[in-house]
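Notes on consecutive records. When two proteins share a document, each keeps its own sequence and its own token line. Never mix them. Below: protein one.
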Amino acid sequence: MTLAVAMSGGVDSSTAAALLAENNANGGTPRVVGLTMQLWNQRRLPSLLGAEGDGSAAHATGRCCSLDDVYDARRVAAFLGLPYYVVNFESRFEEAVVRPFVESYQRGETPVPCSLCNTEIKFARFVETALQIGAERIATGHYARVRYHSATGRYQLLRAVDRVKDQSYFLFGLTQEQLARTLFPLGDLTKEEVRAIARRKNLPVADKPDSQEICFVPTGNYRRFIQAYLNEQGQKIESAEGEVVSSDGRALARHAGVRNYTIGQRKGLGIAAGRPLYVTQIDPVGRRVTVGDGSELFRRCLIAREVNWIRAVQEGDSFEAEVKIRNRHSPAGARVQALGLGQAAVEFAEPQRAVTPGQAAVFYAGEEVVGGGWIASVLD
């Protein structure tokens, strides 16, 4: 059997590859092949590459999938003696991740590009490519676990042992077919244990810092990225000005576009009110941004769209769950009901702060991911 491991050049995917290669060397059956996904031309949009356009941001640290990461992945594969290939997914990545990212902000939402990338690229396309080279299964360095449940005949997605590094929130879109073909070698390990393994094996990236930023936004400034991307695409950016209003409808200021705001935002509002104000609502059609006190950020209900059910859930089913509305959110108790048209209704036991359209709502039953979808609307 051949196993394709996704190698991003970081310590996590490199350690996953090393563990799999060690098993192979000790008589295990999988033949391990390393694959790196080329997702974005880091020298694209030259206006973003350094303050003087000199390209200095092209090699900025803290981002995944950079040119340096490809170099590191190749080094690790050579060190481990693995066959290694780079596969170009740039076109599909732009279509499935970058454009929806831009369009989501223009709708007044706050997107989660990493979840889209996992669903549409790192698993859907990666599984297809692995099959084309004769690999029956894939492996990644994600902190999550997969388990087959014999009673239901379905695969389960479980949270990682390391709750701090757990990445199951970003993986809610995986299908049964993808889960059946996926290994997560790090799911039972803590980050400290992974670092220790990498050092013990003398991996070239053992002490490399973790990536933090969105890979295709070199400066970390999504507003500048959107402007540069739309300019490159030849899309005329019409005036998107509108009003910033108080909760009772009083005009407080003008803004340059709803894409510059997100629910819960406090800084950069351009309002001197003598007390902290937060973005509580965004109306892209009316080009209106509403601000208010922190207490006005709390909401009890949401509707999720494009829901993917990992557990077998039927339309009309209702169940108690813990729901995460962003990666760093502590799961909160709620009742979830499966609706038609790929939707789900969520009612929290207690109102939650800054429930944000465009983010993912992921449903947990203990350590198991039941499913998840994108927050479409928020209700009081």
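Protein two starts on the next line and is unrelated to protein one.
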Amino acid sequence: MLNYIKIDLRKISIVLLYLLPVTLLTGPAIPDISITFICLFFLLSSIIQKNFNWIKSKWVIAALFFWLSIIFISFFSYNFIISITESLIFIRYILFCIAIAYWLIISKKDLNTLLIIIFFTLVFVILDCLYQFINYDSLKGFGPDIFGFTSTHYGRLTGPFDDDIPGSHISRYIFFPILYFVLLNNKTYFLNITLILYISLSIFIVWLSGEAMAFATTMLGMILLILFINKKRKIFIISIILSGIFIFLTNTYHKMNYDYNVISSTPFHHGLLIEKFGPCYFDKDKTCSKIIKTNPKFSQVINNFDQSVYFGIYSDALKMWIDNKITGVGLNNYESMCLANIKYSSIKINYGNCSAHPHNIYIQFLSETGIIGLLSFIVMLIFIFIRIVKNISNPYNKFSLLIFCTLFWPIMSTGSLLKNWYGIEVFFALGLLICLTKFNFKNQDEIR
């Protein structure tokens, strides 16, 4: 009876895991329910089988210590209820990672199945974004996706997400399917061409999405891919060149680059004011215009960073930390503290004085959990990093390292790990890259 329960729980959980790349396209609710059930089934299976060997791993110990530390700092937070609630439910992310690494993905077959599913979901996102791009309208921007989703910000893609996040989604998972292609012994032209198109179109869509940080981390990963992986290196280089050609042709010939006049340009949020020209909806033979506010070029934001919205958000967060160095203001208390105290509320043109979170995971943990929370989080990452590099000659570990770098590169704007969708995306990738470190390239059938 116990064996039946164990097998049944794992089977249900692995189906939920296989469906996760698909359900992530639907929003945060279904994925959050899925990983919660996976965590519950994993704990129940561990109790029934009396198997807690997973707790011996150093990174797991560090992760659990991090969780206890954020619970501890809640007793010193500005809003205890918010902080303790967020701290307690954060355990689902950690348990989800553990379940992937030690319970769900236990063979190369399990891994390959998940990588293939990720590949096809990314292809779907890419094709959906290309559909939006093809249906560009000068006055409306990119067209609706196949579900009818359109961006609320001019010049941004949504794909199937009903939000401006397809670039960041692709950037987090682009390298997992590449691993599958690299490990295939089949060297047919069809597979090579498929890989080239997959990589080049992925890079192109990430660039086209307008998500500068997603594009930067994707290119960082591609550089590391070329440096680390000898197999198919020529294909990687060809793919980057082809994506560069796509970008050049779009910049040179697509009408979105010449159907407007710049009225004014500042580094502020929505600081680019342009007048767009296009056929009138009521009479296609006439030309109409529309005034649009959108974000300035990334280079202008960087060159005038002290005037950007990010500088204001980071400055507010650092002020909170300076006044609460040890324990911070409390997990997910950034916005509440900003609204409650004008000292932490700087003027951000076209944005509002307060943000929902600090837009950088390290600055967020520093301001909300202080030195205790940030250091314990970094210690957890260090143990995962050590686990990866101690066998860096293994191709699986090399992929783990480059994905780890793209996820946790410190100098970039990010979402909040406390928000369902972003947190699930990051910890799903983290759990999978930890899992990769348990595979032996010389014996690909089973985990060591």
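For the record: Residues 443-448 have pLDDT under 50 and may be disordered.
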